[in-house]
Amino acid sequence: MPTRPATTAHLLGSVALLAVVLTSCSSATPAPSASPSAATAAADCIASPAEYQAAWDGHQVRCVAPTLYGTTSGKDSATLYPEGFSFAWAGTNANLETYLVLRKRYAAEPAEVGIGILSYVGFPGLAEFDTPTNLNVYTLPEGVSPIVPSIDGWTQVLDDELGSPDAFPPQAQEELIAAYTGLGKDQDAVDAFQQVTGCRRSELLKGAEVSAAIGCKKDFLKAVQAAGPSPYDSGTTATCLTNFQSRYQGPHSAAAIRGVLFQCFDAGFLNTGVARGYNTYANPMVCGSAAKERVAQRVTGREVIVPNATIASLPEHVALPLDLGRPQARGFLEKGYC
Questions:
Q1: Do 120 and 283 meet the contact criterion of CB atoms below 8 Å apart?
Q2: What residue segments make up the domains of the chain, in order of their start?
Q3: Which DSSP string do the residues of 252-312 spell out, in sequence order?
Q4: What is the mean pLDDT, run by run of 10 residues, along the chain of 338 residues?
Q5: Which of 7, 216, 250, 292 has its CA 20 to 30 A from that of 260?
């Protein structure tokens, strides 16, 4: 499902932030051992999920073709993402290359591979996470294209799904873009989420639910409440959007847009709005503690969204179980991996 072309103003805003992120990341302290860039120089790249599994099992670092994607899901899940979601979050081939690096680098500490991948993806709450999880590596059906989840990409998705070319006013879109592309060097995606929604960063990182008690704005909460149950619960993306459209009584503001993305598409408070992963934990690809890493060093790989599908319906697919170890032995999330 292709997105519409970005407007010049939107494109420049997103590109400007990405330039800052990429420049900053290039000066990050790298972890030792192999790197995706070294693997990319290989003459032949992994072109199928079966080849990827062979490299994974053999602790090999190789380049990966851009036709492969990776999504983490529950071990027994029949779909890429929980069934009610219309879209699934996916890592690109660059992410898959990074996972092979982690697999080789931390072979003696498999939990650092499994939790490291979930952190790289952008999972919050990993200190206690214990759901058996697979890394699904797959190809997309012919004619299916990923969507880049920039603010422009999300705007197009909302326009399409809500059946309106102007589901949200341009001013609200611009406010959302400004919040995510106008961050200072020590500010991150969580700060942008707080700026847009009012929900306090400190409480979100403690695992608090969004509510007025943690400062969330009325427009944001009204949008979330109008949308009804999340697809994680009893809802679906379709019912979530239909409910919002019929029940929401308030301004279609930036906070309201963010409420819809939060509730209906699993775009949580760690979402960067520029199609890059992020976490407040230590980056498994950077040596050093989370406290000492710069914001730019905690920005991770490139992400897209793809139509959610049953795993059995994918043209090619392998499921790689992730070793998550014990929740009590995850000091590396804060102290660093090396």
A1: yes
A2: 17-146+285-294+310-335, 151-265
A3: --HHHHHHHHHHHH---TT--SBSEEE-SSPPTTB-S-TTTS-GGGGEEEEEEEEE--BGG
A4: 28 33 37 44 82 98 98 97 97 98 97 98 96 98 96 89 80 93 94 98 97 98 98 96 95 95 97 96 97 95 97 98 96 97
A5: 7
Residue pair 274/150 in contact by the 8 Å Cβ criterion: yes
The separation between CA 211 and the C-alpha centre of its own chain, rounded to angstroms, equals 23
**DSSP 3-state percent helix, strand, coil across the chain (nearest 5):** 45, 15, 45
Residue with tokens 């494109």: 11
Q: Structure pTM?
A: 0.86
Q: Residue 150 forms beta bridges with which residues?
A: 274
CB atoms within 10 A of CB 3: 19
The beta-carbon contacts of 215-221 under 8 Å, at least 24 apart in sequence, are 217/255, 218/250, 219/250, 219/251, 219/253, 219/255, 219/256, 219/259, 220/196, 220/255, 220/256, 220/258, 220/259, 220/262, 221/259
Q: Residue 67 and residue 90: Cα distance in Å, rounded?
A: 12
For residue 46, give the DSSP letter: B
